[in-house]
Design a protein that fits this description.
420 residues, mainly alpha, 2 domains, 16 helices
Length: 420
């Protein structure tokens, strides 16, 4: 191995230990506790792991690595018992030390990305101690059961589904494995928003709730703040800001879905959706500057997205929309696909987005321009429904605050889509 490569790997290992150690020093400083291991110690631990891996490679024997890691583990164990004897229980720092050593070893073995990822993940977990404990305390029994159900559909059901296409020509478009994989993917994105809401909490501010809620359900944000606007008439602009942020996040969510399924379609789709997002952000900025209020402690209820029933319903909906979209495209051309997209978008934008992205794959798929317009029409239809919800069910102040942004986002999407 070249000398520069060895020094490079040891340098990365040093940075890994420094990063984790820096977090530990910061944490102990603010907790007022005695420092067990800080920047220097964790840097040395990472270098020890890297050195152990190097000695194992040079001797072509696992014994040096086992011996060095065992000695390090013994030192960590002794330190734990000393801390426990002093009445300071907890294994976090000790476990972090062992993880840092292993990350250093992975770096030497040329698993650079994995070693750095483990170090960054370790640092994040250490830094979010209070938030993670708060999240655990606020978990309910339905949350646990729902999460277990998601584990079943993603880890147990998904691997056993056949990964092949079924159906007669030209409707041989049903792949059970891929359809179920999309269900898992959609639920995973929703869960990100749900986890963030649980950790940070909706009481951090109405606008933040709109941002986080948009990941889980922009419709839920719309319904919740529309109802609250009738009882809190002075918060019309904050509510409008939260709703528009959630709608803007919905456009970003669609982009992520299409990028995961059909990256080539993204070359055209990002233009109208980014334009819609930009239009929404401009009006959000106006509302942010126009509002004058102290962040009201509003609560928005979001159910855990890991329910088996909704997952199955989404799979059925996606399959039906996939069939209808294909039939409309075959028998009615692009006009039929546009109509199917608009109708489907009134209820759910994710299913039609994934269906159209799948239909536009490959050389035999539908035109990317037609697919992009279909997705844009679905997004506009979905935004239209949410806008109607606000205009019908909200306080007059919220109606006035949200109407310009509502019209601006829809008009921008349609104009840019037809200019493609």
């Amino acid at each position: 191995m070249e000398h520069y490569s060895i020094f490079y790997r040891f340098g990365v290992a040093l940075i890994i230990g420094f990063l984790v150690g820096l977090q530990r020093e910061y944490a102990f400083k603010h907790q007022g506790k005695e420092l067990a291991a800080g920047v220097r110690t964790f840097s040395l631990i990472s270098l020890i792991g890297c050195t152990a891996a190097m000695m194992t490679s040079l001797t072509e024997s696992p014994l040096p690595f086992i011996a060095i890691i065992s000695i390090l583990g013994l030192l960590v164990t002794v330190n734990y018992f000393i801390q426990a004897w002093r009445g300071e229980s907890g294994l976090t720092t000790e476990v972090a030390a062992l993880m840092t050593a292993l990350a250093g070893a992975l770096v030497y073995w040329n698993n650079m990305a994995l070693g750095v990822a483990l170090a960054v993940t370790t640092t994040i977990l250490l830094s979010f101690k209070l938030e993670l404990h708060s999240f655990a305390r606020h978990l309910t029994k339905p949350d646990i059961f729902s999460t277990l159900k998601f584990a079943v559909i993603s880890v147990i059901i998904l691997p056993v589904l056949p990964n092949k296409v079924y159906g007669p020509e030209p409707f041989n478009i049903f792949n059970p494995y891929k359809i179920w994989l999309l269900i898992v993917f959609i639920s995973g994105i929703s869960f990100i928003g749900y986890i963030l809401i649980k950790i940070i909490g909706p009481r951090k501010g109405i606008s933040l709730t709109g941002l986080l809620g948009g990941l889980a359900s922009s419709t839920a944000v719309t319904l919740s703040f529309t109802q609250r606007s009738r009882d809190n008439t002075t918060l019309a602009k904050p509510f409008a800001l939260a709703i528009l942020i959630a709608w803007t996040v919905m456009f970003a969510r669609v982009l992520i879905l299409v990028a995961a399924i059909n990256s080539s379609m993204m070359k055209l789709l990002w233009i109208p959706l980014t334009a819609s997002m930009f239009a929404g952000l401009i009006y959000c900025f106006y509302l942010y500057r126009a509002q004058h209020y102290d962040a009201e402690k509003e609560h928005v209820s979001f159910s855990n997205p890991f329910e088996l029933g909704p997952a199955i319903k989404f799979g059925i909906l996606f399959t039906l929309i996939l069939f209808v979209s294909k039939a409309a495209q075959i028998y009615m051309g692009s006009i039929g696909l546009y109509f199917a997209s608009i109708v489907a978008g009134l209820a759910d934008v994710d299913a039609i987005t994934l269906s159209v992205a799948k239909l536009s794959q490959g050389s035999q798929g539908i035109s990317h321009i037609i697919a992009v317009r279909a997705v844009v029409f679905a997004c506009v239809a979905n935004t239209f429904v949410k806008g109607v919800i606000v205009l019908i069910g909200s306080d007059a102040g919220l109606k006035r605050a949200i109407l310009p942004g509502f019209l601006l986002m829809m008009a921008t999407s349609l104009v840019v889509a037809f200019l493609i």
